[in-house]
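Work Package 4 report. The design task specified in the project plan requires that, given a folded chain encoded as structure tokens, an amino acid be chosen for each position. We show below one input record used in the internal validation round.
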């Protein structure tokens, strides 16, 4: 089976969040099952071209965006450990040379994002013709690739090369829909009738590519079973798309993300000071000490429960709850370390928290992969109070590193964390999105933390969990096979 992945992020080249992790790992799990996978993504200016030496393919495309021809050249990368997997990167100075993936340094979306992602999608279709390689499936990820099913069933419908292709649209984050004003209609190169009131591209007098993708895709999936249920039953979590999702003839399929344990494993992780394992946890205390030493936390925090947070700093992640409950949380005699980047208002609020609790709170802004590994290995508790969470990868990483998750019971968090009951379970869940519920759950965790042997059993339960990609890859294969039968 041939599958083309189209995505805005691919780890290790480009990653803002879990989307990058997924596209960096799922294709390789599919290749191991005999699928031929190619990926197409932009070659952003932020990619370190000294670290990754891409092959020049000598292929150049001319793509029309809003009637204006745009030249792109195609770079290629084959992962050394899996040379069968081909990653194509689109080089184009005008649209991709910027340092951010979606936003500038201040967190504002680039105004030409519609053009940038239409270019990605048109290049994906062009790649098929150029290589004369017809995928059975195009697997489109998020709003940035949601228009491919629309192009295939409208402007490309009569072109023989595209006729047999089926599409899967995976929604990683339904709140991001790429909604744009009608002034940008000319950018999409789609027939006018699609933009008329109530038609697929129209959304309250604006343009909504995700909505159109949901309507046209052969299968729509999201990244956990609970979230699939939530977006089709809860108007808030569905972010306005509930009706559109429900009106599809076929159900929305929930497939949990996996973890790439070749990169995220305390046994072999080169980013942490001392490696450790389920059988030998001794190194973990040292990792906590090294983490503390490397930050502005005071030495005595080694004896206190240390709470870790690694997150995009946006409303989705429950940042407001943490800020609202911070005084009561700090009264629980804890240390807190945060790594995150996102909205300026949250950066400022956390800076203020760090000033109020010197030596006990360390806040670190920016995207810092090595530090993320160190926090997972050094924190005792991993806090993820997300308002909603389609899947969440970080809590699964935390489990593997023995940082016990305290999470809000929603989406993928509800599907991966089981409440500790004294014998079974791998973490703590709070139901009901409120500061009181969060603090009660954290208080419960801290009570158990004092009982070292109980805590060790709980940690080990988490470390023994297996969320490898193999199972999820089988579930995607089943989706591909099912739509190929239709
Ligand atoms: P989301 O995709 O909503 O951000 P996930 O939990 O699915 O949430 O994935 C987040 C990924 O990004 C994880 O791999 C996490 O470790 C990583 N991450 C998030 N923020 C940072 C940061 N500031 N520095 C380094 N890694 C980060
Ligand atoms: C999104 C979601 C997150 C999910 C990730 C990868 O960014 O917020 O829950 O894990 O995509 O699917």
């Amino acid at each position: 089976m041939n599958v083309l992945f189209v995505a805005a992020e691919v780890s290790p080249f480009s990653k803002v969040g879990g989307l990058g992790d997924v596209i960096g790992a799922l294709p390789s799990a599919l290749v191991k099952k005999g699928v031929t996978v190619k990926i197409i993504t932009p070659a952003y200016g932020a990619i370190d071209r000294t670290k990754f030496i891409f092959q020049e393919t000598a292929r150049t495309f001319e793509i029309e965006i809003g009637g204006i021809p745009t030249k792109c050249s195609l770079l290629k990368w084959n992962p050394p450990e899996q040379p069968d997997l081909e990653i194509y990167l689109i080089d184009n100075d005008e649209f991709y040379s910027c340092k951010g993936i979606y936003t500038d340094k201040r967190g504002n979306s680039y105004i030409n994002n519609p053009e940038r992602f239409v270019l990605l999608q048109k290049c994906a279709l062009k790649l098929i013709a150029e290589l004369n390689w017809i995928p059975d499936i195009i697997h489109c990820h998020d709003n940035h690739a949601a228009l491919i099913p629309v192009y295939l069933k409208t402007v490309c419908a009569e072109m023989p090369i595209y006729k047999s292709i089926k599409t899967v649209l995976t929604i990683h984050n339904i709140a991001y829909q790429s909604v744009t004003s009608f002034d940008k209609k000319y950018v999409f190169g789609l027939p006018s009738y699609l933009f008329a009131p109530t038609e697929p591209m129209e959304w309250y007098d604006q343009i909504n590519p995700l909505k159109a993708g949901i309507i046209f895709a052969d299968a729509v999936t999201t990244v956990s079973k609970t979230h699939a249920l939530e977006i089709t039953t809860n108007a808030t979590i569905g972010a306005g798309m509930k009706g559109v999702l429900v009106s599809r003839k076929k159900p929305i399929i929930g497939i949990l993300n996996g973890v790439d344990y070749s990169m995220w494993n305390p046994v072999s992780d080169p980013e942490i000071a001392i490696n450790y394992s389920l059988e030998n946890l001794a190194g973990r205390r040292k990792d906590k000490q090294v983490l503390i030493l490397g930050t502005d936390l005071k030495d005595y925090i080694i004896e206190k429960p240390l709470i870790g947070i690694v997150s995009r700093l946006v409303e989705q992640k429950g940042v407001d709850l943490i800020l609202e409950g911070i005084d009561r949380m700090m009264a629980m005699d804890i240390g807190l370390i945060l790594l995150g980047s996102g909205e300026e208002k949250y950066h400022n609020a956390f800076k203020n928290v760090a000033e109020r609790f010197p030596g006990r709170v360390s806040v670190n802004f920016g995207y810092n992969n090595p530090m993320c590994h160190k926090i997972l290995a050094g924190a005792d508790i991993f806090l993820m109070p997300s308002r909603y969470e389609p899947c969440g990868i970080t809590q699964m990483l935390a489990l593997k590193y023995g940082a016990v998750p305290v999470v809000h019971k929603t989406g993928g968090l509800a599907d991966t964390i089981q409440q500790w009951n004294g014998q079974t379970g791998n973490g703590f869940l709070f139901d009901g999105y409120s500061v009181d519920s969060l603090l009660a759950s954290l208080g419960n965790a801290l009570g158990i933390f004092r009982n070292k042997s109980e805590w060790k059993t709980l940690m080990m339960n988490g470390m023994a969990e297996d969320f490898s990609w193999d199972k999820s890859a089988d579930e995607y294969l089943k989706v591909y096979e099912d739509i190929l039968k239709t």
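Residues 17-19, 21, 310-312, 339-341, 367-369, 372, 391-394, 397 surround adenosine-5'-diphosphate (ligand 1) (CB under 6 Å). Validation will be extended to a larger panel in the next phase.
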